[in-house]
Design a protein that fits this description.
The protein is α/β, with parallel strands linked by helices and 601 residues long. The protein is built from 23 helices and 21 strands. The protein folds into three domains: 180 residues, Beta-Lactamase; 145 residues, 2-Layer Sandwich (Alpha-Beta Plaits); 248 residues, TIM Barrel, CATH 3.20.20.
Length: 601
């Protein structure tokens, strides 16, 4: 087609169409409105005609009408679901052959044999259609002009159809891209709001729901018991399946509550009104008492601790306080938040933002300090070891770990604190004889930086690695991932001593302790504190000492605070004692102080 086929006036009309459609696209108008406007403008350039746009459904391979201004609703309905083919009219043929189709007489042309009655009923005498193509040149729809009289298209009308089809192609491709972006956006929103393991709304969704909850709302926070034991005994995969089964059971029990997945082993019920919390707790616990969860050939009778908060602001914070109270009472216990008795705990809740700022400032300015508490050798009463204890010093005030470590864990600052403790402990080893222990977290092992970092620190100061004791929590040792075990065994081969801290607080994996060649077991304070009065504590400690002695592992009693307690420790043959009876935490190791039995007060 040459330029002489079109007059300047006609070219001006086409440019007007381009300008109008591009303006609508730029203004982000709805895509169907843009296509409808293109049809209206094209029809005005051919008196006695209508313009239509159809799109091919890639799944059904049928046509759907996107825009047909001037065509009655009944006519549009009849055009829907037309399948492209040799007799499917001008539009069907344009898509079928991916080429323009110009039909002069629809009443006789064989290309209209399947749709001829439609042409007759609506007096569509001529129909010219061009394919709308995607970026790869594939036909995805059609743009057509249908005349109420028999006529051939001029060069102008052919150019008009070509330009209109190209513009609509841009509109459709752009719409498809927007749809894909929205799909991805929805997918990411789902990931942010839905827990991947259980498919329940997650903690972010809970936060949003709490913001909209009425003043009458109530909340039950559940913490599934014994998951550490199950993961260690049956593997993490089985633990995940158990969490999924627990979630499904809770969904069936939800009733008027909305169920959310909290962190780790926690689940949350949020109620608009919770009038009888005790009865609701009884309903939940009763179900799991009578209905074990079955996985493969195994049956699990699940129990949980529960914290309940009713009405008012801070539901989640108050439920967490109540859950802590429940845990203090042992497994399978519940507690309903009581302002009179629990308000003091609320006042002690961590000021998250404030402590986060203090922590970062302390790490920058040297405010994270190592203090040291001596460990007495019970054979001769001499202190030859010290445990490193972290403190935060700011504006002349010294804060204990309980004030800031919870925030450090939440904000991922524990590895930075560990590094600071290592540096200061190794520096002290250049000044004193003996050994110093440092607490190592699961995050430190997860990051895998310890072997190289420790080697650099002790190597720079010429310290024998054997003088550095790495304390790991019992939970880390009992359920360690294979990578943790390999790392700890490597550190052991490098000469560092390994100790289990707070032994007895969880389900101990004795085989794993032997596998790691542990040097020292530190018996948890809850068994030592009243060992002189509590028969159960005495028997538990006696069993631990028996195991350790036969395995060639030294034992340390933590929280030794009185001579009565030390007398029992001596009787049981525990190797070392740590507590205020012999040494209080101080900025410097307290030297090789001797505490013979006659000097104890």
């Amino acid at each position: 087609m040459s330029e002489v086929d079109i007059s300047l006036g006609e070219l001006d009309h086409i440019l007007g169409l381009q300008q109008a459609i591009c303006g609508l696209v730029a203004s982000d108008a709805p895509y169907l409105d843009v296509i409808n406007e293109a049809c209206l403008m094209a029809a005005r350039m051919l008196p006695g005609a209508v313009a239509t746009c159809m799109r091919l459904n890639a799944e059904t391979e049928q046509l759907e009408v996107l825009a047909a201004p001037g065509v009655p609703e009944e006519g549009i309905r009849r055009l829907q679901d037309l399948k492209p083919g040799p007799g499917s009219g001008s539009c069907g043929n344009a898509i079928y052959g991916n080429a323009p189709v110009f039909v002069y007489n629809t009443f006789s042309d064989p290309r209209w044999q399947d749709t001829r009655q439609f042409a007759v009923d609506y007096n569509l005498c001529s129909c010219w259609s061009v394919p709308i193509r995607d970026e790869q040149g594939k036909a995805i729809g059609s743009f057509a002009l249908s005349s109420f009289e028999h006529r051939e298209p001029s060069g102008f009308h052919k150019r008009l159809l070509d330009v209109g089809a190209a513009l609509i192609s841009i509109v459709l491709v752009r719409h498809a891209e927007h749809q894909q972006v929205q799909i991805e956006k929805d997918r990411w929103i789902t990931r942010l709001e839905i827990d991947a393991l259980t498919s329940l709304p997650n903690i972010s969704s809970l936060t949003a729901a709490l913001a909209k909850a009425p003043a009458s709302a109530g909340l039950i926070l559940l913490n599934l018991n014994n998951m550490g034991l199950i993961n260690a005994r049956y593997g993490v995969s089985m633990g995940d399946k158990l969490l999924q089964a627990f979630a499904r059971a809770l969904q069936q029990l939800a009733g008027s509550g909305r169920l959310f997945r909290g962190s780790a082993d926690q689940f949350v019920f949020l109620y608009e009104v919770l009038e009888q919390p005790a009865a609701e707790l009884q309903r939940l616990t009763g179900y799991f008492f009578n209905h074990p969860v079955r996985l493969d050939t195994l049956s699990f009778h699940l129990t949980f601790n529960a914290g309940v908060a009713l009405q008012g602001e801070g539901l989640m914070r108050r439920a967490m306080v109540a859950l802590k109270r429940a845990r203090d009472c042992g497994k399978n216990a519940a507690h309903i938040y009581d302002p009179e008795t629990d308000e003091s705990d609320m006042r002690q809740q961590v000021d998250y933002i404030g402590w986060n700022l203090r922590l970062h400032a302390a790490l920058r300015n040297g405010g994270i300090k190592a203090w040291f508490q001596g460990i007495r050798d019970n054979r001769d009463g001499v202190i030859r070891k010290w445990e490193t204890l972290v403190r935060l010093e700011q504006d002349g005030v010294v804060y204990g770990p309980g004030a800031f470590l919870p925030v450090a864990e939440l904000t991922g600052l524990m590895p930075a604190i560990t590094r600071e403790m290592v540096k200061q402990a190794v520096e002290q080893l250049t000044r004193v004889e003996g050994c110093i222990s440092i607490n190592i977290t699961e995050t430190d092992l997860e990051l895998g930086y310890l072997p190289e970092f420790l080697a650099r620190e002790v190597g720079a100061r010429g310290i024998d690695p054997h003088r550095l004791i790495l304390e790991i929590h019992e939970g880390v040792s009992s359920g360690s991932k294979a990578a943790y075990v390999d790392q700890l065994q490597h550190l052991k081969r490098c000469g560092y001593q390994l100790a289990i801290d707070d032994f007895g607080t969880e389900y101990s994996n004795f085989e794993r302790i032997l596998e790691l060649e542990i040097d020292m077991i530190k018996i948890d304070a809850k068994y030592i504190r009243n060992i002189h009065q509590d028969v159960t504590s005495y028997e538990i400690v006696r069993a631990i000492v028996f195991f350790a002695r036969n395995a060639g592992i030294r034992t340390v009693a933590e929280f030794v605070h009185s001579t009565d307690v030390q007398d029992v420790i001596d009787f049981l043959g525990i190797d070392e004692s740590q507590g205020f009876l012999f040494s209080e935490p101080a900025p410097q190791p307290d030297g090789h102080m001797e505490f013979p039995d006659s000097d104890r007060t």
